[in-house]
Amino acid sequence: MYRDVSACNTYNYGDALYWNSRYVQEAGSFDWYQRYSALRPFARKYIPTSSRVLMVGCGNAVMSEDMVKDGYEDIMNIDISSVVIDMMKRKYGYIPQLKYMQMDVRDMSFFSDESFHSVIDKGTLDSLMFYNQQLPFLPGCRLLKPGGVYMLITYGDPTVRIPHLNRPVFNWKITLYIIPRPGFERPDGCCSSSKSFLEPVPLTEKGLLPADFVLEDPDSHYIYVCQKMDETIVDISHPTMQQV
């Protein structure tokens, strides 16, 4: 059975006051879901280091810092919390490749259309869906250049995320990867799988996992790589959105 934790939460994750209060209490750094070291193979495959990247819901994570150390040249970080943005500006003010701005992802009208090559979303869509199960938009789709990539890292399996991602208005080419949570270990006696977490996961024509697909870690994270397509764009990835 697959899960979507966005259906079982009582906090108001769409409220800046909640996050401001939380970041006042949690002054250190914290990366939701996965660190950059685990996500690096996917970032380097789909997002050139010269890209202009938008990190939505950056929080106090060190992922953007790690990406700059890995050669990325231009990362705009936004978050609804003014507290955490002030904190990150003080922390990283000496790094010109990192920029920080207080902004609600539900209103990014400050940015012009097609102004980013990539949008990275690590848990932000999940937080918004805690707040509003009928989310009418996706963070950043308007902002992507043709051929650009929206990379979503989420707890949401295809039954709850593909309906949002696969709407015709977005015109995505979607590739799915599934990786175990940090620290996951196979149960004793469980044979080692021949599957590589770096290989795309095949999906059915309806965008679902095959009926015989075995999820080794029930708390896995799903990585949806959504490439913005139009008639002139050549697919930048290897064969994706495989159907069975």
Short summary:
This protein is of the alpha/beta class and 244 residues long. The protein has helices at residues 16-25, 36-46, 63-69, 82-92, 124-131, 158-165; strands spanning 52-56, 74-79, 98-102, 116-122, 144-154, 172-179, 221-228. Helices cover 23% and strands 20% of the residues.
Description:
With 244 residues, the chain is α/β, with parallel strands linked by helices. It has one domain (31-182, 193-207, 214-228): Rossmann fold, CATH 3.40.50. Helix content is 23%, strand content 20%. The chain is built from six helices and seven strands; from the N terminus they run H-H-E-H-E-H-E-E-H-E-H-E-E. The chain has helices spanning 16-25, 36-46, 63-69, 82-92, 124-131, 158-165, and strands at 52-56, 74-79, 98-102, 116-122, 144-154, 172-179, 221-228. A seven-stranded mixed sheet has the order 3-2-1-4-5-7-6, with helices on both faces. Strand 1 (52-56), helix 3 and strand 2 (74-79) form a beta-alpha-beta unit. The longest helix has 11 residues, at 36-46. 36% of the residues are buried. The model is unreliable at 1-10 and 231-244 (pLDDT under 50). Keywords: Methyltransferase, Transferase. Residues 54-151 form the Methyltransferase type domain. GO terms for molecular function: S-adenosylmethionine-dependent methyltransferase activity. InterPro entries: Lys/N-term_MeTrsfase_sf, Methyltransf_11, SAM-dependent_MTases_sf. This is Methyltransferase-like protein 13 isoform X2.
